[in-house]
Design goal:
Length: 163
Amino acid sequence: MTSLRIPGLVFLVLLVNCASDSTGDSDGRDSGTSGAAGNGQGGTGGTGGASGNAGSSTGGSGGSTNVCQDLSGKHATSLRAAGECNPNLAADQCGVSATLVDDCGCPVLVNLSATGQLDAAEAAQDAWIGAGCGPNPCGTPCDLASDARCMQVDIGAGVCVGG
Protein backbone atom coordinates (compact mmCIF):
# COMPACT_ATOMS: atom_id res chain seq x y z
CA MET A 1 0.00 0.00 0.00
CA THR A 2 1.29 3.45 -0.87
CA SER A 3 1.38 6.04 1.88
CA LEU A 4 0.16 9.50 0.96
CA ARG A 5 0.75 12.62 3.00
CA ILE A 6 -2.81 13.92 2.79
CA PRO A 7 -4.26 12.83 6.16
CA GLY A 8 -7.84 12.36 4.96
CA LEU A 9 -6.73 10.32 1.98
CA VAL A 10 -4.48 8.08 4.11
CA PHE A 11 -7.43 7.40 6.37
CA LEU A 12 -9.61 6.61 3.35
CA VAL A 13 -7.02 4.22 1.92
CA LEU A 14 -6.69 2.50 5.31
CA LEU A 15 -10.45 2.35 5.70
CA VAL A 16 -10.88 0.68 2.31
CA ASN A 17 -8.05 -1.72 3.08
CA CYS A 18 -9.59 -2.50 6.47
CA ALA A 19 -12.95 -3.19 4.89
CA SER A 20 -11.45 -5.91 2.73
CA ASP A 21 -9.74 -7.53 5.75
CA SER A 22 -12.79 -7.59 7.99
CA THR A 23 -13.24 -10.61 10.20
CA GLY A 24 -16.77 -9.65 11.26
CA ASP A 25 -19.31 -12.44 11.28
CA SER A 26 -22.19 -12.67 8.82
CA ASP A 27 -24.74 -10.83 10.91
CA GLY A 28 -22.54 -7.71 11.08
CA ARG A 29 -22.31 -7.49 14.86
CA ASP A 30 -18.59 -8.21 15.24
CA SER A 31 -16.14 -5.51 14.32
CA GLY A 32 -13.42 -6.08 11.73
CA THR A 33 -9.71 -6.21 12.33
CA SER A 34 -7.98 -3.10 13.57
CA GLY A 35 -6.24 -0.86 11.05
CA ALA A 36 -2.59 -0.62 10.19
CA ALA A 37 -0.31 1.13 12.65
CA GLY A 38 0.86 3.81 10.22
CA ASN A 39 4.32 4.67 8.94
CA GLY A 40 6.04 6.22 11.93
CA GLN A 41 3.99 9.41 11.83
CA GLY A 42 1.79 8.51 14.77
CA GLY A 43 -0.25 5.93 12.94
CA THR A 44 -3.97 5.84 12.62
CA GLY A 45 -4.64 3.39 15.43
CA GLY A 46 -7.29 1.21 13.94
CA THR A 47 -10.67 1.94 12.56
CA GLY A 48 -12.49 -0.76 14.50
CA GLY A 49 -13.58 -2.65 11.41
CA ALA A 50 -15.84 -0.30 9.53
CA SER A 51 -17.19 -3.15 7.43
CA GLY A 52 -18.64 -4.87 10.49
CA ASN A 53 -21.67 -2.59 10.27
CA ALA A 54 -22.75 -4.03 6.95
CA GLY A 55 -24.76 -6.91 8.39
CA SER A 56 -28.50 -7.05 8.20
CA SER A 57 -30.87 -6.79 11.12
CA THR A 58 -31.92 -10.16 12.46
CA GLY A 59 -34.17 -9.03 15.31
CA GLY A 60 -37.81 -8.03 15.47
CA SER A 61 -39.18 -4.67 14.61
CA GLY A 62 -38.95 -3.37 18.16
CA GLY A 63 -42.61 -2.47 18.23
CA SER A 64 -42.90 -0.62 14.92
CA THR A 65 -46.46 0.67 14.54
CA ASN A 66 -47.21 -0.74 11.07
CA VAL A 67 -45.66 -4.12 11.88
CA CYS A 68 -47.49 -4.29 15.21
CA GLN A 69 -50.82 -3.37 13.63
CA ASP A 70 -50.37 -6.13 11.07
CA LEU A 71 -49.25 -8.73 13.63
CA SER A 72 -51.99 -7.71 16.09
CA GLY A 73 -54.61 -8.14 13.35
CA LYS A 74 -53.26 -11.58 12.44
CA HIS A 75 -53.18 -12.55 16.11
CA ALA A 76 -56.80 -11.45 16.66
CA THR A 77 -58.00 -13.18 13.46
CA SER A 78 -56.27 -16.43 14.40
CA LEU A 79 -57.73 -16.32 17.93
CA ARG A 80 -61.24 -15.89 16.48
CA ALA A 81 -60.66 -18.89 14.19
CA ALA A 82 -59.38 -20.97 17.11
CA GLY A 83 -62.55 -20.10 19.04
CA GLU A 84 -64.94 -21.32 16.34
CA CYS A 85 -66.90 -24.49 17.11
CA ASN A 86 -69.82 -26.55 15.84
CA PRO A 87 -72.91 -26.23 18.06
CA ASN A 88 -74.44 -29.34 16.45
CA LEU A 89 -71.83 -31.66 17.93
CA ALA A 90 -72.55 -33.28 21.26
CA ALA A 91 -68.85 -33.38 22.18
CA ASP A 92 -67.46 -30.74 24.51
CA GLN A 93 -65.21 -28.72 22.18
CA CYS A 94 -64.42 -25.56 24.13
CA GLY A 95 -62.02 -24.84 26.94
CA VAL A 96 -59.44 -22.37 28.24
CA SER A 97 -56.22 -22.41 26.25
CA ALA A 98 -53.09 -23.20 28.22
CA THR A 99 -50.90 -21.11 25.89
CA LEU A 100 -52.97 -18.60 23.90
CA VAL A 101 -53.68 -15.14 25.29
CA ASP A 102 -55.62 -12.07 24.20
CA ASP A 103 -54.24 -8.53 23.82
CA CYS A 104 -54.17 -8.12 27.61
CA GLY A 105 -52.32 -11.39 28.22
CA CYS A 106 -55.40 -13.21 29.51
CA PRO A 107 -56.05 -16.86 28.54
CA VAL A 108 -58.73 -17.29 25.86
CA LEU A 109 -61.48 -19.81 25.16
CA VAL A 110 -60.77 -21.99 22.14
CA ASN A 111 -61.98 -25.11 20.41
CA LEU A 112 -59.51 -27.57 21.91
CA SER A 113 -60.11 -30.08 19.10
CA ALA A 114 -59.27 -27.61 16.30
CA THR A 115 -55.55 -28.37 16.20
CA GLY A 116 -54.92 -26.65 12.86
CA GLN A 117 -56.44 -23.38 14.06
CA LEU A 118 -54.65 -23.67 17.41
CA ASP A 119 -51.30 -24.16 15.68
CA ALA A 120 -51.94 -21.14 13.42
CA ALA A 121 -52.95 -19.05 16.43
CA GLU A 122 -49.79 -20.04 18.32
CA ALA A 123 -47.62 -19.11 15.32
CA ALA A 124 -49.36 -15.71 15.01
CA GLN A 125 -49.00 -15.15 18.75
CA ASP A 126 -45.30 -16.06 18.70
CA ALA A 127 -44.68 -13.53 15.91
CA TRP A 128 -46.73 -10.85 17.73
CA ILE A 129 -44.88 -11.34 21.02
CA GLY A 130 -41.51 -11.85 19.31
CA ALA A 131 -41.79 -8.45 17.61
CA GLY A 132 -42.44 -6.77 20.96
CA CYS A 133 -46.03 -5.89 20.09
CA GLY A 134 -47.84 -7.52 22.97
CA PRO A 135 -49.36 -8.52 25.20
CA ASN A 136 -50.17 -5.18 26.73
CA PRO A 137 -51.44 -4.99 30.32
CA CYS A 138 -55.01 -3.75 30.34
CA GLY A 139 -55.24 -3.06 34.06
CA THR A 140 -58.20 -5.36 34.62
CA PRO A 141 -58.11 -8.86 36.06
CA CYS A 142 -58.49 -11.75 33.63
CA ASP A 143 -61.94 -13.33 33.58
CA LEU A 144 -61.41 -17.08 33.46
CA ALA A 145 -64.56 -18.85 32.36
CA SER A 146 -65.47 -21.75 34.60
CA ASP A 147 -67.91 -23.28 32.12
CA ALA A 148 -66.90 -23.07 28.45
CA ARG A 149 -69.44 -24.05 25.83
CA CYS A 150 -70.15 -23.66 22.12
CA MET A 151 -72.78 -21.00 21.44
CA GLN A 152 -74.54 -21.03 18.07
CA VAL A 153 -74.11 -17.80 16.09
CA ASP A 154 -75.29 -19.04 12.70
CA ILE A 155 -76.60 -22.28 11.14
CA GLY A 156 -73.93 -24.86 11.93
CA ALA A 157 -71.51 -22.25 13.23
CA GLY A 158 -70.67 -21.35 16.77
CA VAL A 159 -68.13 -19.66 18.99
CA CYS A 160 -66.67 -20.73 22.32
CA VAL A 161 -68.04 -18.66 25.22
CA GLY A 162 -67.88 -18.82 28.99
CA GLY A 163 -70.92 -19.33 31.05
